[in-house]
Specification:
With 276 residues, the protein is mainly alpha-helical. It contains eight helices and three strands, in the order ααααααββαβα. The relative contact order is 0.12.
């Protein structure tokens, strides 16, 4: 009977584990404060390694984003300038066609002048010829002005294109640099992210929410820190001896009075480092 009594709880525990019920709220409530602190520090340990990888990338992701925005802006500006240039060249072409038509009209009127029967018809044709000549002069003036503007616009287009090409090369180099760094750390980061997700599942929602809140407010991303030489491992302020004893007793979760980080003792640190 004694043997049967010992095995029964084991079977129940195994069945609960097989059914995925170990992480239920009821089960989490039974976890000791020490175990909660171990899981929190384990999560912090993994997240700190992810942070280290991100630090290796430095400002590269932001630099790449800024360059992408700049290149996109330069492409928009370049297209606008090219459209304006095309419009100006179209206006020049219109004026050149107008001159061509005016000259054809003059030639026609001059031919008609040779066949007129009276001075009134001759004077009327002369006025038409004069009008067409004025149209030609005005069109030539407009063409001259437009060509000057086109030359100026072409200089701006060339300058913008040069700037665009330079920044695009810079973007390609930065992207390659970032891709190389990501390629080196991608597998490690994915593994760490899986560990972070796994560790998060073992922490009750209230504690996990507090962890993320503290972590987001901390400059170094540390939300759970060990007591080192009687001081907080986050802000390095001294911790009173009685409070250190409270931290070591694992009766409740204690935070630093100065920075608000969750404090753990050597026992918790050792458990995480040993992978227990």
């Amino acid at each position: 009977m004694a043997k049967s009594d010992v095995k029964a709880p084991v079977k129940v525990a195994k069945a609960a584990s097989d059914n995925g019920k170990a992480a239920t709220p009821a089960a989490k409530a039974e976890i000791t404060i020490a175990e909660k602190l171990v899981e929190l520090f384990r999560l912090q340990h993994v997240d700190s390694q992810v942070d280290r990888i991100k630090v290796q990338r430095g400002e590269l992701p932001l630099e790449v984003q800024d360059l992408e925005d700049e290149v996109a802006g330069l492409e928009t500006r370049l297209k606008k300038l090219q459209d304006e240039l095309g419009e100006m060249e179209g206006q020049v072409s219109e004026k050149q066609n107008l001159i061509k038509d005016a000259k054809a009209q003059i030639k026609k009127y001059e031919g008609q002048q040779a066949k007129v029967r009276n001075n009134r018809e001759y004077d009327s044709l002369t006025k038409e010829i004069e009008f067409q000549n004025l149209e030609i002069q005005l069109a030539e003036k407009r063409i001259k002005e437009a060509k000057a503007q086109i030359d100026g616009k072409k200089a701006v287009v060339d300058e913008s294109k040069t700037r665009h090409d330079e920044r695009k090369k810079d973007l390609e180099l930065k992207k390659k640099e970032l891709d190389d760094i990501i390629a080196e750390t991608e597998k490690e980061e994915k593994d760490l992210q899986k560990k972070s997700d796994t560790a998060s599942k073992h922490i009750e929602e209230r504690l996990l929410s507090a962890y993320h809140r503290i972590r987001s407010n901390a400059r170094n991303g540390l939300a759970v820190v060990p007591v080192e030489r009687g001081s907080c491992g986050g802000c390095f302020n001294a911790i009173p001896p009685q409070r250190q004893l409270d931290i070591g007793s694992h009766k409740k979760i204690i935070v630093c009075e100065h920075c608000g980080r969750i404090l753990v003792d050597e026992y918790v640190v050792a458990r995480v480092k040993e992978g227990k």
